[in-house]
Amino acid sequence: xxxxxxxxxxxxxxxxxxxxxxxxxxxxxxxxxxxxxxxxxxxxxxxxxxxxxxxxxxxxxxxxxxxxxxxxxxxxxxxxxxxxxxxxxxxxxxxxxxxxx
Length: 101
Fold this sequence. Notes:
The chain is of the alpha+beta class. The chain is built from 1 helix and 5 strands, in the order αβββββ. The chain has a domain of about 60 residues: CATH 2.40.50.320.
């Protein structure tokens, strides 16, 4: 019974490691250009321009993407699996006027 438990733990651990290896990378960047006809985007990630193909099964409307837009990408082997506009930074809270004398 102990051997079976050890084997089961090892197999499950290997499955976990393999699944993490195939997971898509999340990246943040800025769109440089969009080619909806070719299904590709040029994105500046970490100061480098990268041309990435867009997964046709992802059903993204590339027409809504504009140059200069900050985006978050899910990338797997130079293929964009999902793309969304990056969340805008929250505005700084207004300073309160001092109260009293």
